[in-house]
Design goal:
The chain is an alpha/beta fold. Helix content is about 50%, strand content about 5%. The protein has a 4-stranded parallel beta sheet, sandwiched between helices. The protein has a two-stranded antiparallel sheet with strand order 1-2. The longest helix has 23 residues, at about 165-185.
Amino acid sequence: MDDAVGTLTRGTAEGGLTTGAVARLLGVAPTTLRSWDRRYGIGPASREGGRHRRWTSADIGLLECMCGLTNAGMPPAEAARAALAAASRDAPARPDEPMSRSRTPSSRTPGASSPTPGASSHAPGALPVGRARRECRGLAGAAVRLDAQAMDELLDAAIDKYGLLAAWESVIMPTLHAVGRKWETVGERYVEVEHLLSWHVSSALRRAAAQRAPTAGSGVSLLACTPGESHTLALEALAAGLAQQGLPVRMFGAALPVEAMEEAVRRTGPAAVVLWAQSRSTASRALVARVESIEWGVRGARRRPAVLVAGPGWAGQLPSRALHPSGLAEALDVLAAISRR
């Protein structure tokens, strides 16, 4: 039996699910569920002891309808009205349901009928996250709703639960790719979603990086995007992964000019330099050779950095001497070995 169905079945038999269990089932932050209950009346029909929320299968069906509509880009207030109207039409009032439950019908909205359990990920306009983790679907939904608090909570929870590397590869990257694909297919509609999600991913990576101080004696890794390159998130994930291992890192971000890069290398004396290029137009073999030639230190004991090239822009034009890790995990391993020499 599917985990979600099993959870719902057990919860119904026990008198309903808690808010935390429903949040995990649907991939929505608990604070979002409480906010929907308080603001729009999308809450449980009954409460344990008059205070604690207990969600029945009917309550969860209403939530799934709400999630499907917000994932399709409908504003929460409008989605709540449509979901409540659909629930009023599709289900007769239960004899034991309090009359205070707000399910006032409103104008019919296309696609507002209550879906079956698990159907929210297939709602019109839902992000194409495929068979990714439930956390990925939840993060995608929060992004479409522009729910900043939910994104922060879901990102932090994924990193805490799976570790930064697994969270990046299994939750964050699939969601970012889904938003990008959605933006490409519907024009400018989802640009604000991509920008807000990227900002919160960046913030979550910085929070993860700040949890451990650098270990003394390890070599510094210098991370920078090539001139003209503005995509930084993958490099930020690498910086956070190094910081979590206690390895010192200097992250220079987007489009670092050549002269500034040379000055940074000479001033920091890094063990390694990582050059990120998202596109072929920003990948420069001449830049790699230039960085490889930089020396520092006293005469007779001069040193040069190991240079790594990262990102899809280097495909088909790899410099002969530079290292080219295949992904975040390999880059972390290579840099850790260089840094600890």
